[in-house]
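Entry for the shared binder. Reason: the reviewer on the internal report wants the predicted structure included alongside the sequence.
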Amino acid sequence: MGLFSFGTDIGIDLGTASVLIYVKGKGIVLNEPSVVAIDQKDGYVIAIGESARKMLGRTPGSIIAVRPLREGVIADYDITEKMLRYFIGRACGKSFLFKPRVMICIPSGVTGVEERAVRQAALQGGARQAFLMEEPLAAALGAGLDIAGPSGSMVVDIGGGTTDIAVLSLGGIVCSKSLRIGGDKFDEAIVRYTRRTHNLLIGDRFAEDLKISVGTAFPKGLRENKIMEVRGRDLLTGLPKSVKFSSMESYEAMQEPLDAIVSALKEVLEVTPPELASDIIDKGIVMTGGGSLLNGLDALLSHECDLPVYVAEDPISCVARGTGKALSQIHLLRNAQGFTRQAL
């Protein structure tokens, strides 16, 4: 009996900001925000994904829009299970008659309890078998890096809730570091900055728009200091107010989380074996994840570490594509550090 006789094999990037699902032979079939809207009165799920994201900060009293994952781990198990069941059902379509095998990514620094929670949520959400693998391994596979050989590769995966930095060789993780810092922390930093410097309260969604439109991690490389109008509530008068927000201000706002990522990258490089370090000098560092799209972040890391840094092609989907590839290479990855066999 072949491996794919019953059900579908799918890879899931269960992210803090969004969920991506890869189906073998079809590619990425789903990319939705990991947001769920719930009626507080009876716990009824009103919306999941993009339709729920539009409700963030805009719901009436009885309805709340929540993000069940925080900093790369499950914050609300029941809601995560419902969200996974919905997304797996959408991804599998009619083939959901047979439960799929699922490969899910986890940050490299999660605890055993957090691992079990993710696996159990996948099984309860409709998976026949649930495998887990660490995000740097999946990101490297999805970016097209050859990690099976004895040569060293380095990946920096910046998601919504976590940043995973790892050196890979012989199909496993040689050294790594995981930070509970990602795109969400950049947004929160911008919210705090506008509050502190402009006495203006803005929402997380508006902060994300600012980060995407005018944000920069490396002002030295800026061609122009972009400016965007910011609207929110004046904390002194309580009235609506708008101010101008520039790229230079975005750098000042995000400096703390950016410094933490740079420090973590240097820490991993310091403990990298010299043979693999020489490979990284030749190959450079590959960045994946939505956070890698922040303007100038690759230039900042390259400047601070004096190494070439590249952003992978379609960095947002690298982890999801990597999980899909991993399912067809389970026999190679079973003994690799960073891959966890499913519970039988």
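Summary line for the report: The domain at 9-138+319-340 is CATH 3.30.420.40 (Nucleotidyltransferase; domain 5).
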